[in-house]
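Module 6 notes. Inverse folding takes a fixed backbone as the condition and produces residue identities as the prediction. Think of it as a translation problem where the source language is geometry and the target language is the twenty amino acids. Below is one complete input and output pair. Work through it position by position during the lab.
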């Protein structure tokens, strides 16, 4: 939540952000809720300041709901948008997100579908079934 608040205020002091990322690196992805994963990736993309190790950890966070950790369509859309803004190229994590979003494509709001279409185009994944489902 701190990183989200920092991004909302556009505060981008490098040393401060690096310290936040270092603390985040010490935690496994399972310690973050789906909303926290989405918020952290969104904040990094918004601030245009990331930590490759933390991005990779968060990119591999669960994409399906487990117990009380509900993965909402908005979380999936935000993750795809943020990973594309961060130019994340891990095909396995992107494929997992894409596959889950495709499975749930009817649950997305129009804005989320637009963000997904933009993200898939930016990732040069226009052949992905998700891109076709979103743009139809």
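Target side of the pair, the amino acids:
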């Amino acid at each position: 939540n701190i990183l989200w608040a920092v991004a909302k205020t556009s505060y981008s002091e490098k040393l401060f952000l690096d310290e936040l990322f270092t603390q985040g690196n010490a935690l496994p992805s399972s310690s973050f809720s789906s909303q926290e994963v989405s918020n952290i990736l969104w904040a990094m993309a918004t601030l245009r300041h990331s930590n490759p190790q933390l991005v990779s950890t968060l990119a591999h966070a669960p994409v399906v709901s487990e117990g009380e950790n509900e993965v909402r369509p908005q979380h999936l859309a935000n993750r795809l948008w943020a990973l594309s803004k961060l130019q994340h190229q891990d095909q396995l994590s992107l494929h997992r997100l894409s596959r889950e979003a495709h499975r749930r494509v009817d649950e997305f709001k129009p804005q989320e579908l637009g963000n997904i279409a933009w993200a898939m185009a930016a990732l040069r994944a226009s052949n992905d079934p998700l891109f076709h489902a979103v743009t139809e």
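Reference fact for the lab report: The mean pLDDT is 84.
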